[in-house]
Specification:
alpha+beta, 134 residues
Length: 134
Amino acid sequence: MVAGQPYRYFLFPRSELNRLSGLAYNMVETLEAGDGFLRVVVKEAPDPSDRYSYDWAQYSFSQSFDPLGVAFSDHYWEDHRRLSAAGKIKHTVENCPERVKPITVREWSPQAGWTDVELPPVAAAGGTAPLSKP
């Protein structure tokens, strides 16, 4: 690695709620790093009932910065149910591609350039990503 060069870039996919929210993109809200772990919370959609709240996706990483999994906020799934009932989303939470199919994160490194990293389906992890220290 060259001094001053980025180690890696990650592009987190826009969720269904983000695409329906009217926002141009999702955005990283917080980073939490600890002894051997990293968590990135991505703001996906504003909460229409509370201007200080939002639906989020939380990505977990290994100590070597490899993406491990993703979890969505409980409120995210509540909003998904509401939008599904209103006909704005054409499937149920239980059949949501974001729950039952892998989620692809784009990763860039100086060694490999851009690659796709498929994270396990949310439902396969019992609805959560590894949130505690690995």
